[in-house]
Amino acid sequence: MSLVIVDTACANLSSVRFAFERLGVKPEVTANAERIRSADKVILPGVGTAQAAMRNLQQLELVNVLKQLEQPVLGICLGMQLLTNWSAEGNVDCLGVIPARTLRMQAQDLPLPHMGWNTVKASQNNPLLANISPEQAWFYFVHSYAVAPDDATIATCDYGQTFAAMIRHNNYFGAQFHPERSGAAGAQLLKNFLELTDVNTRA
Amino acid sequence: MLAKRIIPCLDVRNGEVVKGVQFRNHEVIGAIEPLAEQYAQAGADELVFYDITASADARVVDKSWVERIARVIDIPFTVAGGISSIAQAQEILAMGADKISINSPALRNPELINSLVEEFGQQCIVIGIDSFYNSETNTYDVYQFTGDESRTQKTTWQTRDWLREVVARGAGEIVLNCMNQDGVRKGYDIEQLSALRNDCPVPLIASGGAGSIADFQQVFTDANVDGALAASVFHKGIIAIPTLKQSLIDAGIAVRPAT
Known about the structure:
The complex is a heterodimer. By secondary structure, chain A is an alpha/beta fold. Chain A has helices at 14-22, 33-38, 50-59, 63-67, 78-82, 183-194, 198-201; strands at 3-6, 28-30, 41-44, 73-76, 86-87, 92-93, 101-104, 114-119, 121-122, 138-143, 145-147, 153-158, 162-169, 172-175. Chain A has one domain (3-201): Class I glutamine amidotransferase (GATase) domain (Rossmann fold). Chain A has an 8-stranded mixed β-sheet with strand order 2-1-3-4-14-13-12-9. By secondary structure, chain B is α/β, with parallel strands linked by helices. In chain B, helix 1 (32-42) runs parallel beside helix 2. Classes of the chains: A alpha/beta, B alpha/beta. The A-B interface holds A 12-15, 18-19, 21-22, 47-49, 110-119, 135, 138, 140-144, 158-159, 178, 180-184, 186-187 and B 1-5, 40, 45-46, 67, 70-71, 74-76, 93-98, 120-124, 172-173, 200-204, 226-227, 256-257.
């Protein structure tokens, strides 16, 4: 099993790498198109702004590479938002591999960023939440933009509003929270991702 | 529902965890990694590592322990202490810290906050504020260099003004350390925290004074803070995190269960 973490040049990659190493997998951190294409599984991390991240992907000439992947791909936090069509954060076109949109959170009077542990609810068949009971499904979030719930939503979360905690289209998956920093539940989710088969990724 | 966070703070000096009373007389508690792992397993929601020597000494000490912590724990953690440049912040974040917390360097150069937010995003920039209640003037004053008693000094800022300033500059979270309460375990400064809550549109973390489970319950219900930071009650084994969390759940407070 080969696992690649896309080196987006702006992300804090260490914690994602360490989380997989705790599961006994040695990921390769790379921006090399061929290495990404040939990996069995791909992680798209992300920290910072959508605009800066898309700019980096363009400079690295990875936009088309990432759009054409056929193996399971997991976008984390900003990485998930990059998988959508568009982000309001800088009014920027994203990769468009999951039909969804990223908007500024409307959290009523609650503090933003939405920061801390929150529960998620699987909204349809979600192979990444397998073996995680609803009572255990606490994950760590840090974000001020969120994906609006739609047909691509496979888990929701509530914070002043309901938003998409996880999205999915075919082989592309996204998690708004940080599984690498979400204790045992997060580790189980990453393990589920590693164990995805082709059957799981053809909706 | 978003959980209220329980945040053990580990003051680090020369690579060991220490704790003093009102910032004085630091005693060694133990080595960093085993303590970090122990707290993560006990159900801590987040950890803060405060390198208390660094800021006062105007240098960044050996931070290789940051990466060692990132390898072993699976909850978020913040590193504070002496980070006064983009390059230093970059180094800490690259080693796997989720957030960096800035205190004295932000007072010296407030523009640093804007630069850090622009470079790394609001979500990982925490501002620590050391606030001391002066009973003679009836004001809350901001102090700096609190890691070293001989250099601790009052600034010209009052706490509310400085809080507004750092939020306007993009801070993603505030840790308000109420110095009068620190280490004496007589309860959080509910009055100050609730007064400042309305001025703080970003997450607000209470620090200083936790002595009992009731103190945690009170700071969440009366001051509506997002998280409560504490050190000695955890390090000395006065409060066990699983017991604390269960008590808060029983009191109807949204908390992530310890197991």
